[in-house]
Amino acid sequence: MDVIPGAWRRTAAGAGLLSADGSVAPTIFAEMSAAAARTASVNLGQGFPDEDGPAEVLEAARDAIAHGANQYPPGRGIPDLLAAIGEHQRRFYGLEVDPDTEILVTAGATEALTATLLALIDGPDDEVVVFEPYYDSYAAVVALAGARLRTVPLRRPDFQPDLDQLAAAVNARTRVILVNDPHNPTGTVFSAEVQAEVVRLATVHDAIIVTDEVYEHLSFHSPHVPMATRPGAAERTLTISSAGKTFSTTGWKIGWIHGPAALITAVLTVKQFLTYVNGSAFQPAIAVGLRLPESYFDDAAATMLRKHELLGASLRAAGFEVLAPQGGYFTVADATALGGEDAAAFCRALPERVGVAAIPISAFVTPENQGQYAGLVRFAACKRVEVIEEAARRLAGLR
After folding, report:
1. Which strands make up the sheet holding 208-212, listed edge to edge?
2. How far is CA 130 from CA 43, 68, 136, 270, in A?
3. How many separate helices (H) and strands (E) can be counted in the chain?
4. Is 364 within 8 Å of 180 (Cβ atoms)?
5. How many CB atoms lie within 10 A of CB 75?
6. CA nearest to 237, candidates 216, 214, 262
7. DSSP helix/strand/coil, 333
């Protein structure tokens, strides 16, 4: 008996979800984390912090559990969190969002993205434009939705796209332009010119802009500018974010999406058959987090920048060329001078070689374009300072 239907098998294989023998393919993140555990390596691969979030947020979750917030919350999210998201968007960006009709709480940003693409994609003629390298779930979800992925390369050293290449990628078949800003894995922040061109192209071709802004409070050198604030963008933009990166609560999986009411309703029709609802006790805690004073958010960005600077100095001392990030969790470095022309092989050998785990940028790139990023490696800076210092000591062994 063929347990996995043929159509699903072909789609899953194309998305990299199945190995050649039909078994479930482990992600590079799982592979590198397993290697780190096996070798007692410092894990700078998977992007999760090793410190807890703010005490008042954690205490709010405990209090919610103690006071009975342990059953299904409302389908759109608890009213106080919906209100807090709306307040947050107004406070930081001047966006007016209706909590009752224009916001949906999700099981992290990944579910928001998945539900959105499943809701918006009509068939195999639809295309989704993404910037490459891209977070690995993007290609998988596009494939599962039955659409075609079109990529626009980000060019080193600043990882900004060529606007002519962007314009060539967007066409009458484009259903969604997906923008991750600040960007994972490169750490770039897109320029005003890039944002304006995305809006122009979406308007000309009647496409929906979907933004992944989970690192919105980790923009280092200038305040984050949501795509929805650009002229002409709000009526065709769905904005996704989450609590995990902002409050160091990645395991809570509390995300959200906001945008025009009709589009949010379409996303809800899919989301209700994915997780239905989630995180009843965590939702009120994140409402507390979103209302923290601005000093918390400023300090979070400043602390992350200092960690990037420490990590970057360590990587340079070890012989890497460092491409300093403008935001987010990750620093990208070129390992070519250390014999890392094949970054995937380099990363697979690194735990045994010096006791550090990292992720090759090739994991975020379509097979035909991997040559452009062959020597690049992603290191996570979202760790305690003493952990980064220990990684630096070990990486010095590469010299």
Report:
1. 103-106, 255-258, 237-242, 208-212, 174-180, 127-132, 148-155, 160-161
2. 28, 42, 11, 22
3. 14, 14
4. no
5. 12
6. 262
7. strand
Q: Which residues face 129 on adjacent strands?
A: 150, 177
Instruction: Give the amino acid at 49.
Output: P
The answer to whether the CB of 58 falls within 8 A of the CB of 52 is yes
Concatenated DSSP letters for 137-150?
HHHHHHHHHT-EEE
Domains defined along the chain, listed by start: 6-52+295-398 (3.90.1150.10), 55-290 (3.40.640.10)
Contact at 8 Å (CB) between 255 and 112? Answer: yes
In the block, which residue shows the tokens 């070990």? 394
Find, among 159, 184, 154, 182, the residue nearest to 169 by Cα.
Answer: 154
pTM for the model: 0.93
Q: Does 263 have pLDDT greater than 70?
A: yes
pLDDT, tens digit, 9 for 90 and up, residues 225-234: 999 999 999 9
Over 60: is that where the pLDDT of 56 sits?
Answer: yes
Question: Among 97-111, 166-180, 238-252, 361-375, which is the least confidently predicted range?
Answer: 361-375
Largest CA distance in the chain: 59
Structure token digits, residue 161: 């796209």
Backbone angles phi, psi at 20, to 5 degrees: -60, -30
Residue 6 pLDDT exceeds 60: no
Strand ranges (DSSP E) for 69-197? 103-106, 127-132, 148-155, 160-161, 174-180
